[in-house]
Structure to design on (227 residues):
């Protein structure tokens, strides 16, 4: 398990697009999203899914379910006695998720909902586990604690949260500076930015069980926490 020093949040960029702009962007790129990102993101997602370790019979939620690849893995893990819920802001992404679930014969185990992770429709204490990958960093800085409070609300006591996110922790090199420069000046092309993942999760009242810092082109935090 890797640890890294953290620095003040003042150097963390804000999000420059509205929710409507984010939705329109993902509706537009949904059909090419896997070509653009899945190859690099998939190994990180798999590590996050392994940390969550969904079990047969579990009730599990994925926030920002995208094109549905993690929904498939979660549905396999919870088995016929469990249920997976997926929420995403993009209709086009949900359409692709639905098609993939039908293709894999797992649609009966998964319920999809178009919505916002900061205002979720699920009752309190609903889920054994919540998974989210490359999504928390899409929320603006003041909204990250709101999302995590919603996660805490819908998790059962002792429930598990697994987060995979671009991270401001770790090596801050030229690639990171270029990434953040692009986000700041061309947010329609680079809508996300690295955040202080572990700090946000702990500040929301979760207990961190496992924390790993991996790398794609920038650092990626993989965090398992419990309510």
């Amino acid at each position: 398990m890797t640890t890294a020093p953290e620095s003040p949040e003042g150097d963390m960029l804000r999000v420059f697009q509205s929710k409507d702009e984010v939705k329109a962007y993902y509706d537009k790129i949904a059909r090419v999203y896997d070509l653009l990102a899945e190859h690099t993101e998939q190994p990180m997602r798999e590590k996050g899914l392994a940390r969550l370790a969904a079990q047969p019979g579990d009730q599990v939620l994925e926030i920002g379910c995208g094109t549905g690849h993690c929904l498939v893995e979660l549905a396999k893990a919870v088995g016929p006695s469990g249920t997976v819920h997926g929420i995403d802001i993009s209709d086009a992404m949900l359409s692709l998720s639905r098609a993939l679930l039908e293709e894999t014969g797992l649609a009966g185990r998964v319920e999809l909902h178009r919505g916002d992770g900061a205002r979720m429709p699920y009752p309190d204490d609903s889920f054994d586990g919540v998974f989210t990958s490359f999504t928390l960093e899409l929320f603006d800085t003041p909204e990250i604690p709101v999302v995590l409070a919603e996660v805490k609300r819908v998790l059962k006591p002792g429930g598990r949260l697994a987060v995979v996110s671009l991270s401001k922790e770790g090596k801050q090199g030229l690639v990171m500076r270029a990434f953040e420069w692009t986000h700041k000046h061309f947010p329609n092309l680079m809508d996300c930015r690295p955040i202080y993942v572990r700090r946000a999760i702990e500040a929301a009242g979760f207990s961190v069980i496992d924390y790993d810092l991996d790398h794609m082109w920038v650092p990626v935090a993989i965090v398992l926490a419990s309510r």
Summary: The chain has one domain: 18-226.
